[in-house]
Amino acid sequence: MTALNLQKALKTRTKNALTGMQLDSQEGVLKQVQVFEQHLPRKVKSASRNPEDTYYPCVIIYLDEGENGQVKVLFIIATHDDNSDNQGYRDALSIVEKTIQDLERNPTVDEKFEMIESPKWFYNDQDNHPYYFAWIETSWELPRSMREDVEAMI
Prior knowledge:
Blueprint: H1 3-17, E1 22-24, E2 30-32, E3 34-37, E4 58-67, E5 70-80, H2 89-105, E6 108-109, E7 113-115, E8 120-123, E9 131-141, H3 148-153
Parallel strand pairs: 3-4
Antiparallel strand pairs: 1-2, 4-5, 5-9, 6-7, 7-9, 8-9
């Protein structure tokens, strides 16, 4: 099992955990949180000045680094809130909280991957209004392959 399998499984799981969570979007309507792997899709040029579909709010499941059968996965959270009260951080942190609660309730994904440390979260406090960003850092144990040379000796 590879880190890519873990990423795909985490995408599915995160989508399920955030089902029903609707937040402000760039279009000015409530929108379901979207989940992507590694990067946002490239924008396709739109004929109109106001594209009908934008990516916020979203979570990006980002494979950060791996070593010795372990992989660090970041959940990058991005939200949009045009309100002048500057409270859009609440949406980002709500996604953080809901995601961490789901991971802590069941730290195993697809019965193959196990979270090996408690998740850590961070908030980007730079003024990026109307965008708000946070992320969750997680560490996972990947299943190990059987060594062929050892198996032949048994």
